[in-house]
Amino acid sequence: MNPLLSLLQPYPFERLRQLLANVTPNPALRPISLGMGEPKHATPAFIQQAMIDAIVSTPSGLAAYPATAGEAGLREAFAHWLRKRYGLDVNPATQMLPVNGSREALFALTQTIVSPGSGGGNPYADQAPVVVCPNPFYQIYEGAALLAGAQPYFVPTDPARNFAQDWDSVPEQVWARTQLLFVCSPGNPTGAVMPLNEWKKLFDLSDRHGFVIASDECYSEIYFRDEPPLGGMEAAAKLGRSDFKNLVSFTSLSKRSNVPGMRSGFVAGDAAIMKQFLLYRTYHGSAMSPVVQAASMAAWRDEQHVIENRALYRSKFAQVTPLLAEVLEVALPDAGFYLWAKVQGNDTDFARELFSLYNVTVLPGTFLARDGQGANPGAQRIRMALVTEPAECVEAAQRIVQFVKCRT
Fold first, then answer.
1. Which residues contact 398 (CB under 8 A, 6 or more apart)?
2. For residue 194, what are the contacts with CB-CB under 8 A and spacing of at least 6?
3. What are the structural domains of the chain?
4. What is the dihedral of CA 279, 280, 285, 289, to 10 degrees?
5. What tens digit of pLDDT does each residue of 89-99 get?
6. Which of the four pLDDT bands, split at 50, 70 and 90, describes residue 239?
7. Exposure letters 352-370 (e unless 16+ CB within 10 A, then b)
């Protein structure tokens, strides 16, 4: 077996399952889960119909292997969306590829980029390459780094600065060994959006040290301010980097269009990286099904359902956040569908007792972070995914308020 598999930590939801395994929830209350970030809003009917139509109208489509690069019409849909959303001019033939959801692509790109033992005159060439990750973080970043033979380096967030990453805390010798940097904006679980000056800092570091920036933007279309979140490629263009050197952005339909089961998204950026990523994916065997491509084209070319989806999230957060703010340290995030709340005492104890007494599931913050600089940045925090129906989210919030008041 691959010895690197032994380095992987249990996934947060497996840890949550173990935490609650021997707990009997209050049978008088129906279960409500705010634990998993899985969209629960209804999939738009026109997307479902587009998939059905693709099967009915082109029955031979399932009898042929799809191209890894995807159909030209799909890449044109990506380009159209990037132009409309960010004002970007991106070449659909050389600067973008379809992917089977952002998770698969984040993992695969890491295997494409990381080169263990590559020297090139680097004085740290005899040491393991580094993949820099935010902390707290999406655990795929860590797993992808470890299985590529790299060492993850976790950069803490600063709650006093809207959970901004403390990039200045990273030693120069770590940057010198870095081959890949993961950023997540809007962030999971904090909901923080990176401003332009932060992007400039990262681009300057990338130019100096040569590492690739992987920008995870799967929450970009769920936001609460008037201005939509700044994207990585948008930031690059604003800073005169229209070639998107050493930058790859990841976008998904899962949250935007409520189709997590389709496993559909795309990556775009540096054409040189896209060329090598296509080569990797050709061997990786990750081509998108033709019927999923057809439904994806329909989804990317429609914005009305996205506007309606965003309005539903805004309504839920407007109702739930003030309720929870009465008893927890929590505020409306910049974007995303999570609340990242501070609790009194141990976050795992909080989650277990809440489940036992009020049959509400939340995710302990320590399950989403790693110890660093003497502390775990997820300690005394919980992540709540407001993905279910509004009435259910409000009921969950009311139960949490009761729980905290009784607990204190």
1. 323
2. 164, 165, 183, 185, 230, 235
3. 9-42+305-407 (3.90.1150.10), 46-301 (3.40.640.10)
4. -60
5. 999 999 999 99
6. very high
7. bbbbebbbbbbbbbbbbbb
- CA atoms of 352 and 13, how far apart (whole Å): 14
* 238-to-91, 92, 187, 210, 271 alpha-carbon distances in Å: 18, 20, 21, 21, 18
Structure tokens at 242: 């229209």
CA distances from 101 to 42, 250, 251, 259, 364 (A): 19, 9, 8, 10, 25
| DSSP symbol at 206 | H
Q: What value does the mean pLDDT take over residues 162-188?
A: 95
Q: What does 130-186 look like in DSSP terms, one character per residue? A: EEEEEES--THHHHHHHHTT-EEEEEEEEGGGTTEE-GGGS-HHHHHHEEEEEEESS
Closest CA to 130 of 247, 212, 244: 212
One-letter amino acid identity for 151?
Answer: Q
* 162 band by pLDDT with thresholds 50, 70 and 90: confident
Strand blocks (E) in 270-353: 338-342
CB within 8 A of 158, min separation 6: which ones? 164, 165, 166
Task: Say if CB 164 and CB 157 are below 8 A apart.
Answer: yes
Residue 238, classified by CB atoms within 10 Å of its CB into exposed (0-12), middle (13-18) or buried (19+), is middle
Nearest one of 287, 285, 286, 9 to 147, comparing CA atoms: 9
Give the separation between CA 148 and CA 140, rounded to whole angstroms: 12
Q: What is the residue whose two structure tokens read 């919030």?
A: 397
Nearby residues of 51 by Cβ (< 8 Å), 6 or more positions away: 262, 291, 292, 294, 295
